[in-house]
TrEMBL record, chain A:
UniProt GO cellular component terms: membrane
Record-annotated membrane-spanning stretches: 6-26, 38-56, 62-83, 95-114, 154-174, 210-231
Name under which the protein is recorded: LrgB family protein
Organism domain of life: Bacteria
Automatic annotation (TrEMBL), chain B:
Transmembrane segments: 7-23, 29-45, 57-76, 82-105
A Gene Ontology cellular-component term: plasma membrane
Protein name: CidA/LrgA family protein
Compartments, as annotated in UniProt: Cell membrane
Organism of provenance: Entomospira nematocerorum
UniProt keywords, alphabetically: Cell membrane, Membrane, Transmembrane, Transmembrane helix
PANTHER family for this protein: HOLIN-LIKE PROTEIN CIDA (PTHR33931:SF2), HOLIN-LIKE PROTEIN CIDA-RELATED (PTHR33931)
Membrane topology type: Multi-pass membrane protein
Length: 240, 134
């Protein structure tokens, strides 16, 4: 009897189903809680499934193999970012010069703050490298980790955490610093907190949302270029 | 059909990205993304040909990362000791760069607005003078 039930949970459709169902379930809770960022469905679904593996004997290897189906969609999603960039283009076209400058500045700020913080708290090697892509969207972050070395799972965790932080604190920061233009709010949210920042920006207004979606694409590309440049100039040494 | 059709366009751009990656030293996915952006901008491909799948993929993008989070188990013994400082670095880094980015951008936008307003005023003034001279 027990072995029959265990067998159900090695079936790949059921294993993918667990991922999808827990995501949709936590997401519906989040919607009911008016989009409270800390209820991030990705984060909590991940923790829930880790709990199942640790305490309910769900098989880790078969879960990971079955859920390659889900991970696959990261590739078309990354390409679809090109559409988001186009979607925000009409808004950012007018301020092309300040936005070009700010994209360079924000990429450099993000990378250096990550490295300074890692130094201060004594993170080293692969762990310190996994902080670096924190402000870009995850598929781009994974590409960066592939290039410089580091633990991609940890990097994704950091990326999602950065998104949650940006999503939670964004509106508070804007209030304290008196940031009022829709473009500055949206673009900075997208540039620092990627897709999660974009979802908060969409709640703030349509202009903010469009600026955020453009910011995700542009900062992502620029981060890759800057890291490539740093690698060529031997400022960063790849671990792989 | 509709979904598959639009997904196929994304795959075709993926293929184009891979082909381009042979000569351009950037990740194929990024090149595909740029190609899609440029094609939309140039009007080579209509917005509604790709809009549905793209916006749906973005809307549920969180789902695709769950297996990656679960995969952290494999490294848990390595990272258990550093997870708190790691999250602290990410938290402060994010708050810091968000504040700086928003501040600098807000300042630059105001500056451009003020400059444009000044230029418009100058133009008006000049036009006024000219018409006066005639």
């Amino acid at each position: 009897m027990e072995s029959n039930i265990t067998r159900i949970f090695t079936d790949s459709m059921i294993l993918v189903g667990i991922t999808v169902c827990s995501y949709m379930f936590i997401r519906s809770i989040q919607v009911r809680a008016k989009g409270l960022a800390i209820l991030n469905p990705t984060l909590w679904s991940g923790i829930f499934i880790i709990g199942l593996i640790q305490f309910a004997n769900l098989d880790f290897t078969s879960y990971m193999i079955a859920n390659k189906t889900i991970t696959f969609f990261l590739a078309p999603m990354t390409i679809a970012l090109g559409f988001s960039m186009y979607d925000g283009w009409h808004l950012i076209r007018r301020y092309l010069k300040p936005l070009t400058i700010i994209t360079v500045v924000t990429v450099l700020i993000s990378l250096s703050l990550a490295q300074i913080g890692a130094k201060l708290l004594g993170l080293e090697g692969a762990i310190a490298y996994s902080v670096m892509p924190k402000s870009v969207t995850s598929p781009i972050g994974i590409l960066i980790i592939d290039r410089i070395g580091g633990i991609s799972e940890l990097a994704v965790f950091g990326i999602i955490w950065a998104g949650v932080v940006g999503n939670l604190f964004g509106p508070i920061i804007f209030k304290i610093l008196k940031i009022k233009t829709a473009l500055a709010q949206g673009y900075s949210l997208g540039a620092v907190a990627h897709v999660l920042g974009m979802s908060r920006a969409n709640e703030m207004g349509k202009e903010q949302g469009a600026a955020a979606s453009a910011a995700i694409g542009f900062t992502g590309i620029l981060t890759i270029l800057v890291i490539e440049l740093f690698l060529r100039m031997n400022i960063i040494h790849p671990l792989v | 059909m509709l979904i598959l059709n639009q997904l196929m366009i994304l795959f075709l751009f993926g293929l184009a990205g891979h082909l381009l990656a042979i000569i351009v030293p950037l990740p194929a996915l990024i090149l595909a993304m740029l190609l899609l952006f440029i094609s939309l901008l140039m009007g080579w491909i209509k917005k509604d040909k790709i809009e549905m799948v793209s916006s749906q993929l973005m809307a549920i993008s969180g789902l695709f990362f769950i297996p990656m989070i679960v995969g952290i188990i494999e490294y848990w013994s390595d990272i258990r000791a550093v997870i708190i400082p790691f999250l602290l670095v990410v938290t402060f880094g994010t708050v810091g760069s968000l504040a700086l980015t928003a501040l600098i951008l807000e300042w630059m936008i105001h500056r451009q607005d003020a400059k444009e307003a000044r230029e418009v005023k100058l133009e008006k003034l000049e036009r006024g003078k000219r018409s006066h001279g005639e």
